[in-house]
Amino acid sequence: KQEVTQIPAALSVPEGENLVLNCSFTDSAIYNLQWFRQDPGKGLTSLLLIQSSQREQTSGRLNASLDKSSGRSTLYIAASQPGDSATYLCAVTYTGNQFYFGTGTSLTVIP
Amino acid sequence: EADIYQTPRYLVIGTGKKITLECSQTMGHDKMYWYQQDPGMELHLIHYSYGVNSTEKGDLSSESTVSRIRTEHFPLTLESARPSHTSQYLCASSAHNGYTFGSGTRLTVV
Question: Cα–chain-centroid distance for residue A49?
Protein backbone atom coordinates (compact mmCIF):
# COMPACT_ATOMS: atom_id res chain seq x y z
CA LYS A 1 0.00 0.00 0.00
CA GLN A 2 1.40 3.33 -1.03
CA GLU A 3 1.57 5.81 1.84
CA VAL A 4 1.65 9.57 1.63
CA THR A 5 2.26 11.49 4.84
CA GLN A 6 1.85 15.19 5.46
CA ILE A 7 3.41 17.03 8.38
CA PRO A 8 2.25 19.01 10.24
CA ALA A 9 -1.43 18.07 10.37
CA ALA A 10 -2.30 21.62 11.36
CA LEU A 11 -0.44 24.91 11.26
CA SER A 12 -1.32 28.39 12.46
CA VAL A 13 0.82 31.39 11.48
CA PRO A 14 0.50 35.17 11.59
CA GLU A 15 -0.10 36.99 8.34
CA GLY A 16 3.03 37.77 6.35
CA GLU A 17 5.07 34.78 7.44
CA ASN A 18 6.73 32.42 5.00
CA LEU A 19 5.88 28.77 5.62
CA VAL A 20 6.71 25.26 4.45
CA LEU A 21 4.38 22.29 4.21
CA ASN A 22 5.85 18.81 3.95
CA CYS A 23 4.82 15.71 2.06
CA SER A 24 6.61 12.36 2.15
CA PHE A 25 5.95 9.17 0.21
CA THR A 26 7.19 5.62 0.62
CA ASP A 27 8.09 4.73 -2.99
CA SER A 28 10.49 7.04 -4.81
CA ALA A 29 9.49 5.80 -8.29
CA ILE A 30 6.74 8.37 -8.72
CA TYR A 31 5.30 9.47 -12.06
CA ASN A 32 4.31 12.88 -10.80
CA LEU A 33 3.20 14.75 -7.67
CA GLN A 34 0.42 17.31 -7.36
CA TRP A 35 -0.42 19.85 -4.65
CA PHE A 36 -4.02 20.89 -4.03
CA ARG A 37 -5.88 23.26 -1.76
CA GLN A 38 -9.32 22.50 -0.38
CA ASP A 39 -11.61 25.04 1.25
CA PRO A 40 -14.20 23.73 3.74
CA GLY A 41 -17.02 21.87 2.02
CA LYS A 42 -15.55 22.44 -1.42
CA GLY A 43 -13.73 20.43 -4.06
CA LEU A 44 -9.97 20.39 -4.58
CA THR A 45 -8.20 23.11 -6.52
CA SER A 46 -4.95 22.17 -8.23
CA LEU A 47 -2.01 24.38 -7.23
CA LEU A 48 1.09 22.83 -8.77
CA LEU A 49 2.04 19.66 -10.62
CA ILE A 50 5.62 18.38 -10.60
CA GLN A 51 6.61 15.78 -13.16
CA SER A 52 9.09 13.11 -12.06
CA SER A 53 11.83 14.70 -14.18
CA GLN A 54 11.38 18.11 -12.52
CA ARG A 55 12.75 19.37 -9.22
CA GLU A 56 10.44 22.30 -8.64
CA GLN A 57 7.50 24.33 -9.92
CA THR A 58 6.48 27.88 -9.10
CA SER A 59 3.21 29.76 -9.32
CA GLY A 60 3.03 33.23 -7.81
CA ARG A 61 3.79 32.99 -4.10
CA LEU A 62 3.88 29.20 -4.21
CA ASN A 63 6.91 27.03 -4.84
CA ALA A 64 6.86 23.24 -4.76
CA SER A 65 9.99 21.13 -4.74
CA LEU A 66 10.48 17.43 -5.32
CA ASP A 67 13.28 15.19 -4.05
CA LYS A 68 12.51 11.70 -5.27
CA SER A 69 15.55 10.08 -3.72
CA SER A 70 14.44 11.07 -0.23
CA GLY A 71 10.74 10.62 -0.97
CA ARG A 72 9.85 14.19 -0.11
CA SER A 73 8.12 17.24 -1.50
CA THR A 74 7.71 20.66 0.09
CA LEU A 75 5.25 23.44 -0.64
CA TYR A 76 6.62 26.86 0.19
CA ILE A 77 4.16 29.73 0.65
CA ALA A 78 5.67 33.20 0.71
CA ALA A 79 4.16 36.15 2.54
CA SER A 80 1.11 34.26 3.76
CA GLN A 81 -2.32 35.91 3.68
CA PRO A 82 -5.59 35.10 5.48
CA GLY A 83 -6.99 33.95 2.13
CA ASP A 84 -4.40 31.17 2.13
CA SER A 85 -6.25 29.51 5.02
CA ALA A 86 -7.35 26.10 3.75
CA THR A 87 -6.35 22.45 3.83
CA TYR A 88 -3.41 21.60 1.58
CA LEU A 89 -3.16 18.10 0.13
CA CYS A 90 -0.41 16.41 -1.81
CA ALA A 91 -1.01 13.45 -4.09
CA VAL A 92 1.38 11.13 -5.92
CA THR A 93 0.91 8.79 -8.83
CA TYR A 94 3.23 6.01 -9.91
CA THR A 95 1.66 5.15 -13.23
CA GLY A 96 -0.21 8.28 -14.28
CA ASN A 97 -3.42 6.55 -13.31
CA GLN A 98 -4.54 6.51 -9.69
CA PHE A 99 -3.28 9.20 -7.31
CA TYR A 100 -2.61 8.51 -3.64
CA PHE A 101 -3.52 11.37 -1.33
CA GLY A 102 -1.98 12.52 1.91
CA THR A 103 -4.18 13.38 4.89
CA GLY A 104 -3.56 17.09 4.45
CA THR A 105 -2.25 20.05 6.41
CA SER A 106 -4.85 22.46 7.75
CA LEU A 107 -3.44 25.99 7.51
CA THR A 108 -4.78 29.02 9.37
CA VAL A 109 -3.28 32.43 8.64
CA ILE A 110 -4.13 34.90 11.40
CA PRO A 111 -4.71 38.53 10.36
CA GLU B 1 -13.43 28.19 -14.87
CA ALA B 2 -14.41 24.59 -14.10
CA ASP B 3 -13.96 22.00 -16.83
CA ILE B 4 -15.56 19.29 -14.75
CA TYR B 5 -19.11 19.72 -13.54
CA GLN B 6 -21.01 18.00 -10.78
CA THR B 7 -24.72 18.25 -10.15
CA PRO B 8 -26.48 18.69 -7.88
CA ARG B 9 -24.24 20.74 -5.60
CA TYR B 10 -26.38 19.85 -2.57
CA LEU B 11 -28.95 17.06 -2.16
CA VAL B 12 -31.16 16.13 0.79
CA ILE B 13 -33.10 12.94 0.21
CA GLY B 14 -35.13 10.41 2.18
CA THR B 15 -34.00 6.91 3.08
CA GLY B 16 -34.69 4.31 0.42
CA LYS B 17 -34.69 6.69 -2.54
CA LYS B 18 -32.67 6.04 -5.67
CA ILE B 19 -30.31 8.85 -6.60
CA THR B 20 -27.84 9.60 -9.35
CA LEU B 21 -25.00 12.06 -8.94
CA GLU B 22 -23.90 13.56 -12.23
CA CYS B 23 -20.34 14.26 -13.35
CA SER B 24 -19.32 15.59 -16.75
CA GLN B 25 -16.02 16.85 -18.11
CA THR B 26 -15.24 18.75 -21.28
CA MET B 27 -11.51 18.00 -21.46
CA GLY B 28 -11.72 14.65 -23.26
CA HIS B 29 -9.99 12.86 -20.40
CA ASP B 30 -10.16 9.07 -20.49
CA LYS B 31 -9.58 8.65 -16.75
CA MET B 32 -12.31 9.59 -14.30
CA TYR B 33 -12.75 8.97 -10.57
CA TRP B 34 -15.24 9.21 -7.71
CA TYR B 35 -14.05 9.98 -4.19
CA GLN B 36 -16.00 10.06 -0.95
CA GLN B 37 -14.98 12.47 1.78
CA ASP B 38 -16.47 13.04 5.22
CA PRO B 39 -15.94 16.51 6.79
CA GLY B 40 -12.35 17.02 7.86
CA MET B 41 -11.39 13.54 6.78
CA GLU B 42 -9.28 12.09 4.00
CA LEU B 43 -10.46 11.24 0.50
CA HIS B 44 -11.42 7.66 -0.27
CA LEU B 45 -11.48 6.34 -3.84
CA ILE B 46 -14.75 4.48 -4.46
CA HIS B 47 -14.84 4.06 -8.25
CA TYR B 48 -12.69 4.78 -11.27
CA SER B 49 -12.75 4.40 -15.03
CA TYR B 50 -9.95 4.44 -17.57
CA GLY B 51 -12.23 4.76 -20.56
CA VAL B 52 -15.62 4.03 -22.10
CA ASN B 53 -17.19 0.79 -20.84
CA SER B 54 -14.42 0.44 -18.23
CA THR B 55 -15.25 0.77 -14.52
CA GLU B 56 -13.52 -0.51 -11.39
CA LYS B 57 -14.16 -0.38 -7.67
CA GLY B 58 -11.77 1.65 -5.57
CA ASP B 59 -10.16 1.13 -2.19
CA LEU B 60 -13.26 1.91 -0.15
CA SER B 61 -16.17 -0.47 -0.37
CA SER B 62 -19.24 1.36 -1.58
CA GLU B 63 -22.83 0.39 -2.26
CA SER B 64 -22.91 2.76 -5.20
CA THR B 65 -22.49 1.87 -8.86
CA VAL B 66 -21.12 3.80 -11.83
CA SER B 67 -21.33 3.68 -15.60
CA ARG B 68 -19.18 5.07 -18.42
CA ILE B 69 -21.09 5.02 -21.66
CA ARG B 70 -19.57 8.26 -22.94
CA THR B 71 -16.09 9.66 -22.38
CA GLU B 72 -17.39 12.90 -20.90
CA HIS B 73 -19.96 11.43 -18.51
CA PHE B 74 -19.42 9.35 -15.33
CA PRO B 75 -22.57 9.20 -13.19
CA LEU B 76 -22.74 7.55 -9.76
CA THR B 77 -25.93 5.83 -8.61
CA LEU B 78 -27.21 4.77 -5.20
CA GLU B 79 -30.12 2.35 -5.64
CA SER B 80 -31.40 2.81 -2.07
CA ALA B 81 -30.00 5.70 -0.09
CA ARG B 82 -29.28 5.28 3.63
CA PRO B 83 -28.16 7.76 6.33
CA SER B 84 -24.71 6.11 6.26
CA HIS B 85 -24.33 7.45 2.68
CA THR B 86 -24.36 11.01 3.98
CA SER B 87 -21.06 12.48 2.79
CA GLN B 88 -19.42 14.64 0.16
CA TYR B 89 -18.83 13.00 -3.22
CA LEU B 90 -16.06 14.40 -5.41
CA CYS B 91 -15.60 13.59 -9.09
CA ALA B 92 -12.25 14.02 -10.85
CA SER B 93 -10.65 13.37 -14.20
CA SER B 94 -6.99 13.13 -15.09
CA ALA B 95 -4.53 13.35 -17.94
CA HIS B 96 -0.77 13.90 -18.19
CA ASN B 97 -1.21 17.25 -16.45
CA GLY B 98 -2.71 15.77 -13.32
CA TYR B 99 -6.09 15.69 -11.65
CA THR B 100 -8.93 18.14 -12.09
CA PHE B 101 -11.73 18.01 -9.51
CA GLY B 102 -15.35 19.06 -9.64
CA SER B 103 -16.92 21.17 -6.90
CA GLY B 104 -18.49 18.13 -5.26
CA THR B 105 -21.98 17.01 -4.26
CA ARG B 106 -22.87 17.18 -0.60
CA LEU B 107 -25.40 14.41 0.03
CA THR B 108 -27.56 14.19 3.15
CA VAL B 109 -29.83 11.19 3.61
CA VAL B 110 -32.53 11.67 6.24
Answer: 10
Judge whether A103 and A21 are in contact, CB under 8 Å: no
> How many beta carbons lie within 10 A of that of residue A79, not counting itself?
11
Work out the burial of residue A75: count CB atoms within 10 Å of its CB; fewer than 13 is exposed, 13-18 middle, 19 or more buried.
Answer: buried
Distance CA A53, CA A56 (A): 10
pLDDT surpasses 70 at A70: yes
Q: Which of residues 20 through 39 in chain A touch B, CB cutoff 8 A?
A: 32, 34, 36
The pLDDT value given to residue A1: 61
For B3, residues 6+ apart whose C-beta sits below 8 A from its C-beta are B25, B26, B27, B100
Rounded to a whole number of angstroms, the distance between the first and last alpha carbons of chain B is 33
**pLDDT lower than 70: segments of chain B:** 1-2
Instruction: State which residue of chain B sits closest to A33, comparing Cα positions.
Output: B98
Residues forming a β-bridge with A48: A35
Tell me the one-letter amino acid at B13.
I
Q: Say yes or no for a CB contact (<8 Å) between A42 and B104.
A: yes
Alpha carbon separation from B3 to A72, A92, B8, B84, B99 (Å, rounded): 30, 22, 16, 30, 11
Measure the CA–CA gap between A4 and A36, rounded to whole angstroms.
14
* Chain CA centroid to CA A10, Å: 13
Nearest to A53 by CA among A62, A66, A43: A66
